[in-house]
Design brief:
Layout (H helix, E strand, L loop, with lengths): L5 H54 L1
C-alpha cells in the first residue's frame, strides 16, 4: 500500500501535515500515531498466535 506513494507523495503528505497541525503539534501527532501502530501490531500478533494455538490443539 505505501510502496505506491513514492518520494514526492511522501513529501506532499509531510508538508500537508506540517501545515495542518503546525510544528508544535506535529511531534505529539507522530507519537500518538506510533503508539497506535504499536498497539495494532501487538493485537494482530496476539490474534495470529491464538489462531495457531487453536490449530495445534485441534491437531493433537
Amino acid at each position: 500500500m505505501l510502496s505506491n506513494i513514492g518520494i514526492p507523495g511522501l513529501i506532499l503528505v509531510l508538508v500537508l501535515a506540517l501545515i495542518i497541525f503546525g510544528p508544535s503539534k506535529l511531534p505529539e501527532v507522530g507519537r500518538a500515531f506510533g503508539t497506535t501502530l504499536k498497539e495494532f501490531k501487538k493485537s494482530t500478533r496476539e490474534l495470529v498466535s491464538d489462531e495457531t494455538d487453536e490449530k495445534k490443539k485441534k491437531e493433537a
